[in-house]
Structure formats: C-alpha cells, structure tokens
Amino acid sequence: MDNNTLLQIAKEYGSPIYVYDAEKITSQYKRLTKAFNSVNNLRINYAAKALSNISVLKLFNSMGSGLDTVSIQEVQLGLKAGFKPENIIYTPNGVSLEEIESVAELGVQINIDNLSILEQFGSKHPKIPVCIRINPHVMAGGNTNISVGHIDSKFGISIHQIPLLLRIVENTNMTINGIHMHTGSDILDIDVFLYASEILFETAKNFKNLKFIDFGSGFKVPYKKGDIETNIEELGKKLSKRFNSFCKEYGKDLTLAFEPGKFLVSEAGVFLAKVNVVKQTTSTVFAQIDSGFNHLIRPMLYGSQHEIVNITNPKGRERFYSVVGYICETDTFANNRRISEINEGDILCFKNAGAYCFTMSSNYNSRYRPAEVLIYKGKPQLIRQRETFEDILRNQLEIAM
After folding, report:
1. 13 a known binding residue?
2. Which of 44, 162, 236, 397 has the greatest number of beta carbons closer than 10 A?
3. Model confidence pLDDT, tens digit, residues 86-120
4. In this structure, are 277 and 174 located in the same domain?
5. 298 is known to lie in a ligand binding site
6. What's the rounded Cα separation, in Å, for the pair 218 and 240?
7. What is the DSSP letter of 187?
8. What CATH number corresponds to the domain at position 140?
9. What is the dihedral of CA 78, 261, 302, 293, to 10 degrees?
10. Binding residue per annotation — 46?
11. Which DSSP helix (H) or strand (E) runs through 358?
12. How many domains, the chain?
C-alpha cells in the first residue's frame, strides 16, 4: 500500500476511509501456520470481532481458516461468508442461555465460560458437546481493558472451580470436547503464555473426550519502528514441542487451536483522514482532521499508539503536532508527535488500523461511519460504502406531535 495508491483511494472514495491489504493478511496467516507446522492438527480460528467485513471473512475462509465468534450475529456473518458450521467456534461472555441455544441449533462449536450456563445447558442438551473456557489466573495484556486472564476477570471458569465443573459434567452426563483459555492481548513474555498453557494441559487431563485445545491468542504486533512484538516463531517451536508431548501422554492426536484477530489484520489496515485545520495555540500546533473517536476509538479507550504519516508530504520537514478530531469531547489521536509538515487538505495515514478500529466505530455526533476498501490482487475494491443521512434515520421512528 504505497502512498500514491492510498492518495488515489482517498481521492476516489473520499475520507475518512479504512484501507486493508489482502496480501498482508495472507502473509500473516501463513506466518502463523508455518510457526506451528510440526503439529499434526492445527486450526486457526480468525477472531471476527477484530474486523468483520464479509469480504474479509470470505478471504479467511478461502485460506482454510476457521472462525472465532462472540455473538450470534458474528456466527450468522460467518455462515453467510461461507464458513461451515463445524469450522466456527462461539465464545460468548454473559449472554443468555437462549442465545447459546440458538447458536447451538446452527451446528457450531459452543464454548461456555461460566458454571451457571454450563449446568443449564448441560441439563437441557447433554448430547451437544461443548468446550470449556478456563481462566488460568495468569495476567497478560498491554492494558487492563484487554487483560482477561487475571483473578478478577469476568471471563472464563476459574481453575479453582474445576471440582465444581467436574461435578456438573458428571451430573449432566455432558461431553466436553475442548478446553480453551485467553489470557489477554499484547502478550510480550512467551514464558508467561507457556506457563498458562501448562495450567491448561493439567486441566485437560480431567476430560477423556477432548478433540482440541484452544490457546486463545493476544499476540502483540509492532505499532512503530523498533517496537517489541510476540516472537511467533519461538512460541511455535516451544509450544508445538510441548503440545506434541502432551498428545502422546493423552493417548491421541488433538487439534491445537488459536483464535488470532489483531495479529492477522492489524498491520494490514490503515486509516486515512484529511486535515481540515492547522491550529496554532500558545503552546501547541493542532492538526484537526475530518474524523474523531467515533471512527477510531482505540487511542482514547486503550491509550493505543498508531503511527501517523503525512502521505501528502512524506519528506517534508518534521514538526511537532497534536492530532485531534472533530468530536465535542477531548478527542486526541497523538500528542506532540513528530510528523512531516502538515498543511490543510493533507491526508494523514494512521497505521495498524486493521483490528478493532472500524468494528468499534459509531454514529456519535450523528456522523457517518467511513467506507472500507480492500486491496485484493493488487486492485483496490470498495467493500463497504460510506454511510448516508438515510442510514442515520433508517431505524428511527417519528411520532406525531
């Protein structure tokens, strides 16, 4: 995705706009599968919540990926994109029993993360195999909002509740066919992940009918030059060896599953926005763009960093800018960031915008959500139209006054 291509896309389809590179998505998928090529049975379930455009889902399906979903709507999207039900895993949190039962009717793999629903579901549907989400009480993640394996997390069944879990399984005579964990996002320390994996292996010994063990994901990607990232190759080598050893102990070959989202699509996406105003105050130079946290909330929500490049003037003299949006609250993407000199009308490119960016966008301030473009086989293709005023009004009802 060179600057000229991106500028042409912004000119043709307008800004703000999200652009994704299918080639980068494909290379990340191949990198992950290659890292675990010594495992007999590997299943990569792409986490749909990261980027759920149906064209992106179809791309993953064409590569042989499975799909990780957290809502019945994501399941329905996956089925429409061509995924077979048996290649979809559904891992909700805090949803109703009715939704879980509706998903089960679609034939996808159910993953349950609390004892109450496990007992209710097992009592009513003992013949439907389910996966169990375990909370290993291992802290991982770059931010408290994305760390889900600690002891106070709402996610998963505590390893200290295993006796209760086993009692429910015995009483309902249900079948547990998978064990799952997810410690959090932005994993830096492979040894911490491997430690959590040992807890999962130990837990797995309690169940005799397993078909797979799902290790979640949360692999860190680089957000800027020289940034630390999860060493997938080292993790693949160490975890594959341990997994193969466990399969021998267990007595049969299980499937090793992951559910990456950010790792597969983050670096493949960019967000393009136009500079409306360059505003000099007594202490700061603001570059005010035609967007806000209604389109890209991660910096405000997580404190995430996105490298910002002025692709209109990439070789200009660098100056310090605070890049802000047009929302009525404080709406900051970057503070005092070195960026090539910015003029009004320039296009800024936010990198690492493929994961949890468009999917978390909204119509706050009654703004339209952006368009999306996928560069597929070298050709930019519109995969979502920019919203219109009719979209804002579509489900609203006017009452007589």
Report:
1. no
2. 44
3. 999 999 999 999 999 999 999 999 999 999 999 99
4. no
5. yes
6. 17
7. B
8. 3.20.20.10
9. -50
10. no
11. none
12. 2
